Structures are given as C-alpha cells and as structure tokens.
TrEMBL record:
Keywords: NADP, Oxidoreductase. This is Short-chain dehydrogenase. The keyword Magnesium does not apply. PANTHER family: DEHYDROGENASE_REDUCTASE SDR FAMILY PROTEIN 7-LIKE, RETINOL DEHYDROGENASE-RELATED. It comes from Uabimicrobium amorphum. Residues 6-188 form the Ketoreductase domain. InterPro entries: KR_dom (IPR057326), NAD(P)-bd_dom_sf (IPR036291), Sc_DH/Rdtase_CS (IPR020904), SDR_fam (IPR002347).
C-alpha cells in the first residue's frame, strides 16, 4: 500500500473533511497526526481512527505560526520524517461582503490563508531537508468560480489555490509535491453550522436556509476517498463532486455564461437571506 507507514499531519482533522481523510488514510496504513484547535474533539477523533490504524491527537491553533512550526518540527523529530502535510483547517462566513465586519474578514484570512501559509512554510522547511514530501492544501470550488454570498470565503480559497499552483512548480526540484483540494458542497458541519452575517436579522431560520440549498451535499466519506486517490496520483487540483467538475469547466470556457448563472443564483439567495421587515 502506498500509504503504509507514512506520516501525515492533518489540521482541522477533528471533524469534517479532515477527519474523513484521516480515517481513510489510516485504513491504508498511514500514521495520522490529528491536529485541531479543539483538543478534546481531536482526542475523540484519534481514538476512533485508532480502530483502523494509528492516530495521535495534537492541539494547534493554525493562526499561531510558532505553534504550527512547533507541531511540524516535533512530529518530524518524533517520527523521523513527515510524508504529508494537510493544511485543511478552515471556516466559512456566509453573507454579502459589503455587510461583513473587518473582524470577520480578518478571522477568515487568519485561518483560511495565513493558517495554510504557516503550515506550508513549516512543512517546506522540513521536506526540503528530507528531499521529499507532499503538501496538500484545502481550497474549494469557491476558489475557482464566482461565489456570491460566500465572496470573502471565496477570496481566501482563490488565494490558497494560487499559492498551490505556483508552489507546485517551485517545490518540485526539492522533491516536494503540492496538491490543492477543491470540493463542491460536501456534507460536513461547515455546510450547516457556518457563521452567517446578521443572522439575527434574517427573515428565515437557519433550517429554512439549509432546505433551500440547491445542491445535495456530497457524502464526506466518498469525498475522502476521492481526495486520497488524487493525492496518491499527485494531482495538482483535486476536484470533488460532479457539480464542481461541471461548474469549473463552465467558468473556464464560458466565463460570461458562468457570471450570468452567478447573478441568477445571487438574486435567489438574496431573497432567502432577506432581512426582517
């Protein structure tokens, strides 16, 4: 098995895509470092993953560059190397960009962009010395296409994807591989529990908003299998879900049409997110 005895750090691995990928890799023989800001939840996740393979829980706030570096250096020292670094931790804030506070903007970029940069930087330093390694950063379909009502989140994921595309070329000479994960709508807590701007002022409940999601969320376990398969094949961009493949191609070849679809979607969502009168 290609993943047997490999060492993988996965941030944000206590739930969602991170946890599903951790479990899938453990099944194939990898040793998983379950890193998450919620240490108690990370411990529970590691215990569950240990039913399939080896997992260890670590507490880390990806907004803290020194803490991320310490995690990476400690794992490399304890296990002799790092084969995979998954910078997966992330958040989403739903709503129009013009109504978002600067605190919300900063929180999004601190976690989704700087968190990826800190993990990538720390892992590159170790992997350059090793002469091998694979960095896998979680971007999104929203990092490829226009995403009204997720514009700020989309901006962070465009940044992550841009970093990955260029780093993949630069890091190759050092034996380091780089991949970007670009999921569509996946059945994770991010879909249902993400923060909403001015939620208390909305005319509809969070449950009603969930019911109006046009795309059926893709099972996270299936997404994990696609991700692991793509990583083993060293794909530069790992698209997940049929709608992600369709919409990314549509935007690539017909950007004008894609924008029209985005406008239609935005008008529909604007009615859903309408404020109380």
């Amino acid at each position: 098995m290609k993943l047997k005895d490999k060492i993988a750090i996965i941030t944000g691995a206590a739930s969602g895509i991170g946890y599903a990928v951790a479990k899938e890799m453990a099944k194939e023989g990898a040793t998983i470092i379950v890193a998450d800001i919620n240490f108690e939840q990370a411990q529970k996740a590691a215990q569950n993953i240990n039913e399939y393979g080896k997992a260890f829980a670590h507490s880390v706030d990806v907004r803290d560059a020194e803490a991320v570096k310490k995690l990476v250096d400690d794992v490399a020292e304890q296990h002799g190397r790092i084969d995979y670094m998954f910078n997966n931790a992330g958040i989403a804030i739903m709503g129009e960009m013009m109504e978002m506070s600067l605190e919300q903007w900063n929180r999004l970029f601190d976690i989704n962009v700087r968190g990826v940069i800190y993990g990538t930087h720390a892992a590159c330093n170790v992997m350059k010395k090793q002469g091998f390694g694979h960095i896998v950063n979680t971007a999104s379909l929203a990092g490829i296409i226009p995403s009204p009502n997720l514009g700020a989140y989309s901006g962070t994921k465009h940044a992550v994807l841009g970093i990955c595309k260029s780093l993949r070329i630069e890091a190759r000479e050092f034996g380091i591989k780089v991949s970007a994960i670009c999921p569509g709508v996946i059945d994770t807590p991010m879909v249902t529990d993400s923060e909403m701007i001015n939620e208390e002022q909305l005319a509809v409940s969070r449950e009603e908003i969930r019911e109006n999601i046009q795309l059926t969320p893709y099972p996270v376990e299936k997404a994990a299998r696609v991700i692991v398969k793509g990583v083993k094949k060293n794909k530069g961009i790992i698209l997940i879900t049929g709608h992600a493949h369709i919409l990314s191609r549509l935007y690539r070849f017909f950007p004008g049409l894609s924008e029209l679809i985005g406008r239609s979607y935005y008008k529909r969502e604007k009615n859903i997110f309408a404020k109380k009168k």
